[in-house]
Amino acid sequence: QVQLVESGGGLVQAGGSLRLSCVASGWTFDSYAMGWFRQVQGKERELVTYMQRLDSTPYYADFARGRFTISRDNRGSKKNTLYLQMNSLKPEDTAVYYCNAASSRARILEGDYWGQGTQVTVSS
Fold first, then answer.
1. 7: which of 55, 94, 97, 116 lies 20 to 30 Å off by Cα?
2. Are strands 59-60 and 46-51 parallel, antiparallel or unpaired?
């Protein structure tokens, strides 16, 4: 059974940092594009960042570039783990953050698999 499980969300003050993790299980995700999305209640889900493969150059949304960093680990005990390092957080970053996996870059917005989400709340 394919699963994506996010963790690392929480409450942080503006200017602070959080690192989100997404552990994938049930399949080998080496060739999959992996991404992070976020959604504010009542608004559409938006793409934060994604990377096509382990060694590819990530894409960042404008609001994420320079503050957020996506990375993947496929080694040892951290195998199949996706990260999102978020620095200089702002109240407008408050949202539920989701990780996803897609069989190709063209499918990243639709996604083949999604996690359940983790809440990030940034206080002013």
1. 55
2. antiparallel
